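Hey, can you fold this?
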Amino acid sequence: QVQLQESGPGLVKPSQTLSLTCTVSGGSITTNYYAWSWIRQPPGKGLEWMGVIAYDGSTYYSPSLKSRTSISRDNAKNTVYLQMNSLKPEDTAVYYCNAMLGRDDYWGQGIQVTVSS
């Protein structure tokens, strides 16, 4: 079974860049047709899909976040990364890594990121 573990800073200052890591175990990030997404949930709000990197390395982003977001991967480390720049207080959220293929839907436990000076 695929397991996902997010890691990164819990507190970031406004205008800085957020870098999060999703370490994957129990499966390869290059397995055919798997999609690896970053999803966030601001306090008191619903889930927001941020973007995805597919098994073949192609990426797609939410139009509202595309200008500030980058998703990449390291196949050797079996790791997916999220980078988001020009952070604002409204980017405060729990950030999740997600893996999906058909009915397979795996989530990390999430990491709280607070944007505050």
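Oh, and this one too while you're at it.
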Amino acid sequence: QVQLAESGGGSVQAGGSLRLSCAASGYKTKESCMVWFRQASGKEREAVARIDTDGTASYLDSVRGRFSVSKDDAESTMYLQMNNLIPEDTAMYYCVAGTATSCSSAQWSDFVLRGQGTQVTVSS
């Protein structure tokens, strides 16, 4: 069964760090576009960080310099290292995977393979 499973969420104080993992089973992450999305309560879902099929990483402006996305194809796992967390980072974080075409738009609706999410809560 092809699926993505996120882990690593939790509650931290502002300034703290968390490392999220997205483990893929039945799916090869090499040459895949993989994205971390987040959705805070009452807000629209947004793409936080992504790794394109060529390995290029890109970030939402508000997290650039604090978050780092990486991928271990041997382990079929994508990571999101989040440092210097702020309360505005509080959200449910989801990972998705797709093709180069999916990455060209980086829209949630273009990714068929999605995880169930992991909650990140940052207190001030």
